[in-house]
Amino acid sequence: MKKIVVPVDFSEQSGYALRVAASLAKKHKAEILALHMLELNQAMVTSSEGFNPEQTVFLIKLAEKRFKEFLDKPYLSGVEITPIVKHFKVFSEVNDVASKNNADLIVMGSHGTDGLKEIFVGSNAERVVRNSDIPVLVIKKEHINFKAEKFLFASGFKEESVEAFQKAKQFAGMLSAELKLVYINTPGDDFLSTNDAHDRISQFLSKAGVDTKVDIYNDYSVENGILNYGDKIGADIIGIPTHGRKGLSHFFMGSIGEDLANHSNVPVVTFKI
């Protein structure tokens, strides 16, 4: 891990994300790219009547000053940190910054049980995750001494998730974390017999080119199963696949991802399918 992008809006939650990123940066000798999205009134930029260069410059300088003060944290001591200010709220720019700088991870804050309504500058996690080609680690609580020793990856173990699994495996290795795999079996239309579940998992692992253990955990819902199993094994991070730009039909749309990020006591990281 060489570079970590952290969106910052000066909120408590973005501070939590910054602290976790600092822990990871110190452990892996990585650089933090602290990104602030400065939302300017569109009229100031596009309208000849409303445009005021002096006022625009003043707002940018004010944001840069506040940014500098926000980054003056004891836990950032010894961490290489580069502040980046973008002048518009464009969610794809987070991924653009990550891609341009060859970043390995995006760490961002969440309001948790408030419903992921605001992450930075009034946006939400779904839009950032949808545009991100790299893992996004969602933090909603303060972690004084963040550790990543046990990483749980939950999946339906369908062929479309093989790439996400490979990314999760690489991510766990990058963190030097133990990778635990789980399939959540639920009642109803998605229920699989033990034999069918093992067959699906075996085919998945064969396509992924790995031979490792996958636990099957029964629960009333996928969300509860992941949380309960994660609590049982003492997971430090929970990983899930997402469909990215294809549409988060199962993640961060009022279902699995949102429930996990809202109710999990540990950080949740997404991997694009």
Automatic annotation (TrEMBL):
UspA domain residues: 1-140, 150-271
InterPro entries with a match to the protein in the record: Rossmann-like_a/b/a_fold (IPR014729), Universal_stress_UspA (IPR006015), UspA (IPR006016)
A Pfam family it matches: Usp
Gene3D superfamilies listed in its UniProt record: HUPs
Source organism, top-level taxon: Bacteria
Family: Belongs to the universal stress protein A family.
Name of the featured protein: Nucleotide-binding universal stress UspA family protein
Source organism of the structure: Maribacter polysiphoniae
